[in-house]
Structures are given as structure tokens and as C-alpha cells.
Amino acid sequence: MASEERTQVGIVGAGPAGLVLGRLLELAGIDTVILEARSRDYVEHRIRAGVLEHDTAELLAEAGVGERMRAEGLVHDGIELRFGGAGHRIDFPKLTGGRHVVLYGQTELVKDLIAARLDTGAPLRFEATDVALHDIEGEPWIAYVHEGAERILRCDAIAGCDGFHGVSRPAVPGLKVWEREYPFGWLGILADVPPSTDELIYAHSERGFALHSMRSLQLSRLYVQCDPTDDIANWSDARIWEELHQRLALDGWSLQEGPILDKGITPMRSFVAEPMRHGRLLLAGDAAHIVPPTGAKGLNLAVADVRLLAEALIARFTGGGEALLDAYSDSALQRVWRAEHFSWWMTSMLHRFPERDAFGERLQLSQLDYTCRSEAASTSLAENYVGLATDWWSRA
Ligand code: FAS
Ligand code: PHB
User: Fold this and answer.
1) Which atom of ligand 2 is nearest to the CA of 295?
2) What residues are in contact with ligand 2 under a 6 Å CB criterion?
3) Is any ligand 1 atom within 6 A of the Cβ of residue 203?
4) What does the buried/exposed string (b/e) look like for 304-328 if buried means 16 or more CB atoms within 10 Å of the residue's CB?
5) Which of 51-55, 189-193, 254-258, 388-392 shows the lowest per-residue confidence on average (mean pLDDT)?
6) pLDDT tens digits for 280-307?
7) C-alpha span between 133 and 282 (Å, rounded)
8) CA of 107 to the centre of ligand 1 (A)
9) What is the pLDDT of residue 390?
10) CA of 179 to the centre of ligand 1 (A)
């Protein structure tokens, strides 16, 4: 006989979406239970995003989980676009009225959120398997297995924060899906070497795209565009560094090598599923949408979703009615499509397309040149990269 319990919001998934939502609801006194399929160790060491938008960093600090981010995160006031043998800096504060980004790995953010939740004792169940959603249009409940026992969680609402391969999106009937696959992926490395640059370098080269990012002043994170079906076994450390040297090359600048601690290939896609609500099931984060990582939007978009979702659920549970919940999907999708377009635009401008399209390549170079020369075009890149201010969406 399965043991039963009840909560106000059942959250499926302990990635950034589920953990931030859990934190915001907990601070508002809303009961939640988070169910996570994998182990704590797995979730805390899954290397993914690195850039926090201005308002994402602010939200984490306001939610009381930003202390280590403030101490160890790196505030960045710009990025460099490198093409045609020259580097061009995009100055964020100058173009956006003082906004910036913070370099702080998703692994660290997840560790901070998990620690905060375990510290308060709010339920967070790792290795919760066989999660199945039921009666999402009526009286929702979640069946799952934990510590060898069948469990039932009855909820007033379910937040599907279980990522692209989760069970929540498939539970929504009649979904409308938009998808675009790209003919390339990213090979990413984590290297035990100080970054060779103070700010991120996005490089367009004849050999393909490369990105020099970082995780700290001691740890570098770098990427090269590759065939999405390629096998990482085909990429020796020496071959990876050689490609990075060639694609990031600039007179008077050199790239420092170091031991590679982790390497992997990630395919790229743009994906949106609508609506993000069905009955009492609300989708947030990668469960509803995916962006190519070029614009550093994935994690930030997940946080933007749960900022809206938390506000709607808090209103629902504190006598504010369901108007914000009814508006959640449309409000979230406005931000989703803006991030989808920006991520597609950055990806299309910077990557070399396999069909060796000479005309397309000249268009890319012209777009890069214009983006760096025109204050209007630089401002457009900068305001999307640091993240449109939360109140931007309510302006006429
Ligand atoms: P997540 O996928 O992070 O979390 C979902 C959670 O749900 C996971 O912990 C999963 O174990 C759990 N789950 C899944 N199914 C479940 C089930 N049935 N029951 C219970 N739990 C379940 N974004 C960037 O901005 N920059 C990057 O460089 C970048 N690199 C990436 C590299 C890779 C390989 C991937 C896959 C993504 C990358 N992203 C990047 C995007 C990434 O950061 C996501 O946008 C971000 O993790 C989204 O957070 P969540 O929506 O919480 O989803
Ligand atoms: C990262 O540091 O992982 C990173 C930074 C910027 C991007 C994508 C990934 O656009």
C-alpha cells in the first residue's frame, strides 16, 4: 500500500528551475515537495551553464542564496566578438545603463540552492524514480518510488521542472511544438588553467566558432563548434587545443593550455512547446523550451519562468485568485520567444554552416561588423545578453 502525503505544490526536478521555484515558494510560506530522479552528487556535478544575467544574480541574492555567488562569482562588464583578425568589445554598462552579467557555474548555483533547502528541512527527495503525474486537470497527484517504497504526493498544483527529457511535458495533451535542429554542436572542455582573457571571447573563424569562457580565475571553460554526431573519442586533448589556438588566434594574444578535467559534445536545438500550463500542471525551464547555448540563455530563461510562476502561485495560495496563473503561459512565452530569437541570432551569426555557403558567410561578417560599429546594434546585443530588465515587459 503506497504511503500518502499532501503538499500545495509538487515540483518535479531539482535543476535550476525546480530549486529556484522551491526557494521562492518556501520564502512565501507555500508548502512544496521537490522530487528529483538523480542523486544529489550527480545533480551537483553536471557541468552546464556559466553566465547569470543581471536580474538572475539579483534574484538569487534577494532569495538569500547569493552569498557564495557574490564572493566567488565574476562580475563581467562585457564580451569580445573576435572576427576578421580583430577583437571588438561590447560594453554592457555603457550600453544598458549599468547592467552586467555574473560568471558563476550552474553546478555552484545548484549546490547553493540544495544546501539552502536542506538547511531549512523543506522536502527534497533525490533518487525519486518512476514519477507519474495523474489527474492534472482535477485533483493532481504524483506517484513515485523512493527508498524502495511506492509513494503518493497529492498536490494543489504540479510544477514540471524536469528538463527536456522529463515526464511533465508529455503529460500535456495537444501540445504545439516548434523545433529547429542545427547542423553543428559544441565540444566543451573544463581546463585547469587560468583564463587567457578577462572577459568572454566569441570567435567567428573560417574553421568554425569557438568560445573562451571561464568558471573562476583558476578554471577555464572553452568550446569549439563540431559535428553534433562526432564522438568525443575522436578529440584528443592536443587536437582540441590546436583547434582553439587556430579559431581564437589574434595578433599579440596567446591562449594558455592546461590539463583538461572534463570534455563532452552537446548537440544544439531550438525548441518551444506551448502552452506551458494545462489544468494544474505548469511547465518551467527546459521542460518547455530549449535554446542553443550561444546566447547563454538556457539557465536564465528557466529562472525567468519560475519568477513568474512563483508570483502566480503565491497569489493563488494567498487569496489573490488565479488571474496570474491564467496568464502564466502567455507571459512566460513572451520571454521565451525573445530568448529563442536572440539565441538563434547569435548562433546564426557566429557559426560556420557546413554547406559552405559563401554568400551566407559574407552576410555573417557584415552583420558582425555592423553589430560592433553601430551603437544601436551593440545595444541590442548587450540588452539581450545581460537580460531585459524585468519591468521592460510591462512597458508600453
Ligand atoms: P534541468 O535539465 O537542469 O533540470 C531538470 C531536472 O529534472 C534534472 O535534475 C533531472 O535529473 C530531473 N528529472 C528529469 N526527469 C525527471 C523525472 N522523471 N522525475 C524526477 N526528476 C526528473 N545553458 C546555458 O545558459 N549555457 C550553457 O553553456 C549551457 N550548456 C548546457 C550543456 C548541456 C549538456 C545541457 C543539457 C544544457 C546546457 N545549458 C546551458 C542549458 C541548461 O543550463 C538548462 O537551460 C538548465 O539546466 C535548465 O534548467 P532546468 O529547466 O531546471 O532543467
Ligand atoms: C559557459 O561558460 O558555459 C558559457 C558561457 C557563455 C555561453 C555559453 C556557455 O554563451
Assistant:
1) 10
2) 49-51, 200, 213, 221, 293-296
3) no
4) bbbbbbbbbbbbbbeeeeeebbeeb
5) 388-392
6) 999 999 999 999 999 999 999 999 999 9
7) 12
8) 11
9) 80
10) 18
pLDDT tens string 195-242 = 999 999 999 999 999 999 999 999 999 999 999 999 999 999 999 999
CB neighbour class for 224 (10 Å; exposed up to 12, middle 13-18, buried from 19): buried
Q: 72 near 122, Cβ under 8 Å?
A: no
Residues annotated as catalytic (active site), given as ranges: 76, 202, 293, 297, 385
| Top-tier CATH class for 3-75+100-178+269-351 | alpha beta
The Å distance, Cα 12 to ligand 2 centre, comes to 26
CA of 286 to the centre of ligand 1 (A): 6
Q: How far is the CA of 304 from the centre of ligand 2 (A)?
A: 18
Closest residue by Cα to atom 29, ligand 1, is 49
What pLDDT score was predicted for residue 356? Answer: 67
Count of beta carbons in the 10 Å neighbourhood of residue 363 = 13
Cα-based distances in Å from 278 to 35, 174, 286, 288, 368: 20, 10, 17, 12, 41
Q: What pLDDT does residue 394 have?
A: 84
pLDDT for residue 391 is more than 90: no
Q: What do you get for the CA distance between the two ends of the chain, in Å?
A: 55
Is the pLDDT score of 1 beyond 90? no
Angle between helices 54-62 and 298-317 (to 10 degrees): 40
164-192: string of b/e by CB count within 10 Å (b at 16+)? eebbbbebbeebeeeeeebebbbbbbbbe
Total-model pTM: 0.97
pLDDT of 396 higher than 70: no
Instruction: Give mean pLDDT, residues 114-136.
Output: 98
Q: Give the per-residue pLDDT at 361.
A: 92
Nearest atom in ligand 2 to the alpha carbon of residue 202 is 10
Confirm or reject: Cβ of 180 under 6 Å from ligand 1.
no
Q: Which atom of ligand 2 is nearest to the CA of 214?
A: 2
Q: Which ligand is nearest to the CA of 129?
A: 1
301 CA: nearest ligand 1 atom: 45
Closest by CA to 102, choosing from 216, 196, 19, is 216
Q: Which ligand is nearest to the CA of 161?
A: 1
For 266, the enclosing helix (H) or strand (E) is strand 260-274
Query: Nearest bound ligand to CA 298?
Result: 1
